[in-house]
Specification:
By secondary structure, the protein is mainly beta. It contains two helices and 13 strands; from the N terminus they run E-E-E-E-E-H-E-E-E-E-E-H-E-E-E. 5% of the residues lie in helices and 44% in strands. It is globular.
Length: 196
């Protein structure tokens, strides 16, 4: 098929939820998943993507290569969100994949970091609060939350990291680890944001 076709579509994402768009594996359109959403682009499409919204939006864009490079990632983070919270739009756990949130205080005083996990429909599933000293860090693994029965198994949702005082600066990173034996499968992708 031709690889010069342009594609434009609209999606509606529930509050505090996330939707994925994979040029190889389909994506959401008008709130429903469509496996063939990107079929008109063809197998050799090479281009750019533009995203717009009338609401606050945070996202991550991954470039996956099946040969030498495994994953390249960059962030799409609205400036409004960077001021008071870090939104991690994909947090997961299943037999083939898992995720973790790592947060560090870069404030000069003690900070209480709150990590909220939302399911695919945008409903709050669990909240973790951690007290951090200056320059201290914490890691929260979805597998540990599953094992403690604090999140459902499997889990596919998102997370929001914030502090009790929005002037306290934190750095948060979300990791997605894919353990599938598929040689073309993602091994790990990372995105980050800074709240201050």
């Amino acid at each position: 098929p031709s690889c010069t076709t342009d594609l434009s579509f609209t999606d509606s994402i529930p509050a505090n939820s996330s939707h994925g768009y994979n040029t190889r594996g389909g994506g959401y359109k008008n709130g429903s998943f469509d496996l063939n959403l990107f079929s008109t682009l063809g197998d050799c499409w090479d281009g750019t993507v533009s995203v717009s919204s009338d609401q606050k939006l945070v996202g991550v864009v991954n470039t996956i290569w099946a040969a030498a490079n495994r994953a390249g990632t960059y962030s799409l983070l609205g400036p409004e969100d960077a001021n008071n919270k870090v939104v991690l739009p994909k947090q997961i756990y299943s037999t083939d994949s898992r995720s973790a949130v790592n947060a560090m205080s870069v404030s000069s005083s003690p900070v209480t970091v709150t990590t909220k996990y939302y399911n695919a429909s945008g409903s709050l599933e669990h909240k973790v609060e951690t007290n951090l000293e200056p320059k201290e860090s914490v890691g929260i693994n979805t597998r540990d939350l599953i094992n403690s029965q604090l999140l459902p198994n499997p889990f596919n949702g998102s997370a929001e990291v914030s502090t009790t005082n929005f002037s306290d600066a934190i750095i948060a990173i979300g990791n997605l680890i894919y353990t599938s034996a598929d040689p073309e499968g993602d091994r790990a992708v990372t995105y980050e944001g800074v709240g201050q």
